[in-house]
Design goal:
The chain is an all-alpha fold. It starts with a helix and ends with a helix. The longest helix has about 80 residues. The chain has two helices and no strands.
C-alpha cells in the first residue's frame, strides 16, 4: 500500500470515527428529549393535581395566598419543563443533521479512496504492460 493510500485510509477511519461520534450524540439527544418529555409530563401532572384541589378546605385568606403561591410555583416549573422539551427537540434536530452531514462526508472519503485505489491499480497494470512490452521487444531483438 502506498503512502498516499495509507493517508487516505487514515482519513476514512477519521471520517468513520466522526460519524460514530455524531451518531452517539444523536442518540444522547434523543434520550434527552424522552427524559425532558417525561419530566414535563410529571410537572404538568403535579400542577393539575394541585389545581384540582385548589381552595378546598381553605378557611382563611393567608392559606389561600399560600396555596395560590404554591400553584404559581408549580405552573412555573411546568412551563420551564415545557421549554426544556422544546430546547431538547431543537438539539435533537441539530444532532440528527450532524449525523447526515457526517455520513455524507464519510461516503465522500470512501469514494475518494476507491478512486485513488482504482487509479493506482490502473497505473500498476499500465506499468506491467509496459514492462511486458519491453521484455517482448528485447526477446524479439535477440532472435532477430
Amino acid at each position: 500500500m502506498s503512502a498516499r493510500m495509507r493517508r487516505v485510509e487514515r482519513l476514512v477511519e477519521l471520517g468513520q470515527e466522526a460519524l460514530n461520534g455524531a451518531r452517539a450524540a444523536a442518540v444522547a439527544a434523543t434520550r434527552a428529549v424522552v427524559e425532558a418529555r417525561a419530566i414535563a409530563q410529571r410537572e404538568e401532572q403535579r400542577w393539575t393535581e394541585a389545581a384540582t384541589g385548589f381552595a378546598k378546605g381553605v378557611t382563611r385568606a393567608p392559606e389561600l395566598d399560600q396555596q395560590a403561591a404554591h400553584l404559581r410555583t408549580l405552573r412555573l416549573h411546568a412551563d420551564a419543563a415545557a421549554r426544556a422539551v422544546d430546547r431538547a427537540v431543537v438539539e435533537e434536530t441539530k444532532r440528527n443533521a450532524a449525523v447526515v452531514k457526517a455520513a455524507m462526508d464519510h461516503r465522500k472519503l470512501e469514494l475518494w479512496r476507491d478512486r485513488i485505489s482504482l487509479g493506482e491499480r490502473e497505473e500498476e497494470d499500465r506499468l506491467e504492460r509496459v514492462a511486458a512490452d519491453e521484455l517482448a521487444a528485447r526477446v524479439t531483438r535477440m532472435r532477430a
